[in-house]
């Protein structure tokens, strides 16, 4: 099958127009993979708030809450409202939940189903975030806020880690101090 000279000229012109468009109008940018800040790791987990260095973290795991009625069992990562919250590790979003204490929350379960990561006081979820979604370490999943019982003047991420059995529900598990996992300290 042969193209006429006239038709062949039109095809060549269209091809040249596509090449010119790609050269002058298309910009290739990185995909939705891990953010550059995800490479900064002090411990076994990525710090779950973008651009927060390990030195900015404080171990609040054993601090008392509710007038000494219970331990904190988490750390608070202070950051400006709207800062990107990122997945501390690979996993699957187990539950999106609202509670009076935690406000807007997100539960991320590890691929081996033995660890649960709890993110609370969120301002909102990243676009496309939903239950069952697989996420990669460093991927944006939410925004820092002060929902629930958090002080509106002090937006932060309440970040907790729980050791959990594979069949245990999203609200179970045994608290594990996230501070050494984020900073590499003992």
Write a compact overview of the structure shown:
The protein is α+β, with helices and mostly antiparallel strands and 186 residues long. It has helices spanning 5-25, 178-183; strands at 64-65, 70-71, 75-78, 84-86, 91-99, 103-109, 115-125, 134-135, 140-144, 156-163, 174-176.
Structure commentary:
GO terms for molecular function: metalloendopeptidase activity. Pfam families: Peptidase_M23. This is M23 family peptidase. There is one protein chain. It contains two helices and eleven strands; from the N terminus they run H-E-E-E-E-E-E-E-E-E-E-E-H. It has 186 residues and is of the alpha+beta class. It has a domain at 59-183: Glucose Permease (Domain IIA) (Distorted Sandwich). A hairpin with a 4-residue loop joins strand 1 and strand 2. The model is unreliable at 20-41 (pLDDT under 50).
SSE string, helix = H, strand = E?
Answer: HEEEEEEEEEEEH
Write down the Rg: 23 Å
The CATH superfamily of the domain at 59-183 is Glucose Permease (Domain IIA)
Tally of individual helices = 2
CATH topology of the domain at 59-183: Glucose Permease (Domain IIA)
Strand content: 25-35%
- Sheet having the most strands: 9 strands, antiparallel
* Fraction in helix: 10-25%
Structure classification: alpha+beta
Protein name: M23 family peptidase
GO molecular function: metalloendopeptidase activity
Write the layout of secondary structure elements.
Blueprint: H1 5-25, E1 64-65, E2 70-71, E3 75-78, E4 84-86, E5 91-99, E6 103-109, E7 115-125, E8 134-135, E9 140-144, E10 156-163, E11 174-176, H2 178-183
Antiparallel strand pairs: 1-2, 3-10, 4-9, 5-6, 5-8, 6-7, 7-9, 7-10, 10-11
């Amino acid at each position: 099958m042969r193209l006429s000279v006239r038709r062949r000229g039109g095809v060549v012109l269209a091809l040249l127009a596509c090449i010119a468009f790609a050269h002058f109008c298309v910009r290739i940018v990185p995909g939705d993979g891990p953010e550059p800040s995800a490479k900064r790791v002090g411990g076994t987990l990525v710090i779950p708030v973008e651009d927060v260095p390990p030195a900015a973290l404080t171990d609040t795991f054993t601090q008392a809450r509710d007038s000494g009625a219970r331990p904190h069992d988490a750390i608070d990562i202070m950051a400006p409202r709207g800062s990107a919250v990122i997945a501390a590790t690979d996993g699957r979003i187990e539950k999106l939940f609202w509670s009076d204490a935690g406000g807007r929350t997100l539960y991320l379960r590890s691929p081996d189903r033995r660890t649960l990561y709890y993110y609370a006081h969120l301002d909102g979820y990243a676009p496309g975030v939903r239950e069952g979604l697989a996420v990669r370490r460093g991927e944006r999943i939410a925004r820092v806020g002060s929902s629930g019982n958090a002080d509106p003047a002090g937006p932060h991420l309440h970040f907790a880690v729980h050791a959990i059995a594979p069949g245990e529900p999203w609200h179970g598990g045994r608290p594990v101090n996230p501070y050494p996992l984020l900073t590499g300290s003992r």
